[in-house]
Design goal:
Residues 212-238 form the PLD phosphodiesterase domain. Keywords: ATP-binding, Lipid biosynthesis, Lipid metabolism, Mitochondrion, Nucleotide-binding, Phospholipid biosynthesis, Phospholipid metabolism, Repeat, Transferase. This is CDP-diacylglycerol--glycerol-3-phosphate 3-phosphatidyltransferase. One of its GO terms (molecular function) is ATP binding. This protein has 495 residues and is an alpha/beta fold. It has 15 helices and 21 strands. It has two domains: 87-305, Endonuclease Chain A (Endonuclease, Chain A, 2-Layer Sandwich), CATH 3.30.870; 349-488, Endonuclease Chain A (Endonuclease, Chain A, 2-Layer Sandwich). It has helices at 6-16, 22-44, 52-55, 100-113, 129-147, 162-165, 172-182, 199-204, 236-240, 253-268, 291-314, 322-328, 352-363, 381-389, 416-433, and strands at 87-89, 94-96, 117-121, 155-161, 187-192, 220-223, 226-230, 242-243, 246-249, 271-273, 279-280, 337-339, 343-345, 350-351, 369-374, 393-399, 440-445, 451-452, 456-459, 470-471, 491-492. The two termini are 35 Å apart. Mean pLDDT is 79; it is low at 1-23, 39-65 and 461-495.
């Protein structure tokens, strides 16, 4: 009985040496608890795991029968529109980017041609020359909009996390101050501060470690009616050698309106950056503990609009094929791609992403393929039970230790990649012990000089495959496949 406790005891002794570092102590404590629980879980694994899907939440019921005029493949996912708005677009308006450089150039190009609005939500804005180039593009566009013969009244709204955006003397806030000082009526910078970090906790936890309490993590970049959905932050590595996902939606007014309203809603419960680098609570700001209603009103309003549009689209006799629409030139082609924005803001008791993800994993049937991609492999126990307890095939793409963003970091952060490898090996050992290695396959992304940050969860509907930089860690599979997702993911205001 002494051996299983050796790991936790070691960590507890280490905690005793850190009386002045509560944030680091909390992190080590969580690792200690996880090590202890993982040993217990391995002893408890049994064939009862196969009952996991039966014990999971049921699929939310569709309030009305599936529309017989909708494309057949949509029926399976129509229940999601009871939770979030359903956006139907033509695949001709969807473009999947492949590289950080392409993402950066698209950001700059879209800022330069924006006439009405630029809305950017990210964890933070970096402080290097590439980030300054982006800020210069914003300044140039604002200046042009005011000096033109017919001013366009361009508005810029930026949403960042308060703790991450305030880290260090030179930070996201100082990068954006010139815009606020020069265009105070046209620029809004909102800094979300998690309500979980307050009082004594806020005073005791040092900078950087306070970011473990909660963050603003929405990543969306929109310009007039064009939208980029991504997991990338506004930082130099995400523009050069940090692989992420990027989906560019062109001329999608309804989606752009929704994300503008969502960012405005989160901005209304956030602190507002002032021209003197202070933050303030502006008149009319919504208290964070009333944020649930503010955000859910945006979701419900968009759902209602899209349901009305759905009826008009599929019950209208003027619906055109893509070829007919191209020839006519004045009406949109028939939608063949469906986008459901999944929102997760747990401090506000909004857990839509969690509900949908668990339901999709629960309902995955034999013959279905589920693809999971993450730079940080750390499944919750519920997700782990669902993966091991269902009959669908799983392909899970992970970051190899060398492409983990913490690889080579100083101090305890340098041990984080090894911790993820340990979790990965534990999970794969359970897969093998259940004889499921043919059904559940793990892959590691590796590319010299790059890091990996992509996070995607999808159930396979239709896909295009391409070889990428991968390698085999032991018996793991070796092909990375890039897919067009049915569900657009990655929206969360607190992680």
């Amino acid at each position: 009985m002494a051996a299983p406790a050796a790991g936790p005891v070691f960590w507890r002794r280490l905690l005793g040496l850190l009386p002045g570092r509560p944030g680091l102590a909390a992190l080590l404590g969580r690792l200690s608890d996880r090590l202890g629980r993982s040993r217990e879980r391995r002893r408890r694994r049994s064939p009862w795991l196969l009952l996991a899907p039966l014990l999971s939440p049921t699929v939310p019921q569709v309030t009305s029968p599936p529309c017989c005029l909708c494309p057949e493949g949509v029926h399976r996912f129509q229940w999601i529109r009871n939770l979030v708005p359903e956006f139907g677009v033509s695949s001709s308006h969807v473009r999947v980017l492949s590289s950080p450089a392409e993402f950066f150039e698209l950001l700059k190009g879209q800022i330069k041609i924006a006439k009405r609005r630029v809305v950017m939500a990210s964890l933070y804005l970096g402080t290097g020359p590439l980030e300054q180039e982006l800020v210069d593009c914003l300044e140039s566009s604002l200046e042009k909009s005011l000096q033109s013969k017919f001013p366009s009244d361009l508005k810029v709204s930026i949403l960042l996390d308060f703790t991450r955006g305030s880290r260090g003397r030179k930070n996201s806030r100082t990068m954006l101050l010139p815009l606020l000082q020069r265009f105070p009526e046209h620029v809004r910078v909102s800094l979300f501060h998690t309500p979980n970090l307050r009082g004594l906790l806020r005073l005791l936890i040092p900078e950087r470690f306070n970011e473990t309490i909660g963050l603003q993590h929405i990543k969306v970049y929109l310009f007039d009616n064009n939208v980029i959905l991504s997991g990338a932050n506004l930082s130099d590595s995400y523009f050069t050698n940090r692989q992420d996902r990027y989906v560019f939606l062109q001329d999608c007014a309804e989606i752009a309106d929704f994300f503008t309203e969502l960012v405005d809603a989160v901005g209304d419960v956030s602190l507002q950056l002032q021209g003197d680098d202070t933050v303030d609570v502006v008149d009319g700001m919504v208290h964070p503990y009333k944020a649930n209603k503010r955000v859910m009103d945006v979701i419900h309003s968009a759902r209602t609009r899209q349901q009305m549009l759905h009826a008009q689209t599929f019950h209208s006799e003027t619906l055109l094929s893509q070829e007919e629409a191209a020839a006519a030139g004045d009406r949109r082609p028939a939608p063949d791609t469906w986008i459901y924005p999944l929102i997760q803001m747990k401090p506000f008791e909004i857990q839509i992403d969690e509900i949908v993800t668990e339901t999709l994993l629960t309902e995955a049937e034999r013959g279905a393929k589920v693809f999971l991609t993450t730079g940080y492999f750390n499944l919750t126990q519920a997700y782990m039970d669902l993966v091991l307890g269902t009959r669908a095939e799983y392909q899970i793409l992970l970051a190899s230790p060398e492409v983990n963003g913490f690889f080579g970091a100083k101090g305890v952060a340098g041990a984080i990649p090894a911790a993820y490898v340990h979790i990965e090996r534990q999970f794969y050992s359970e897969v093998c012990s259940l004889g499921q290695q043919d059904r559940v396959q793990l892959q590691e992304y590796w590319r010299r000089g790059w890091t990996f940050h992509a996070k995607v969860a999808e159930e396979h509907v239709q896909a295009v495959s391409a070889e990428r930089n991968t390698r085999k860690p032991g018996r793991l599979a070796s092909v990375f496949r890039a897919h067009t997702c049915l569900l657009c993911r990655g929206l969360t205001a607190d992680r």
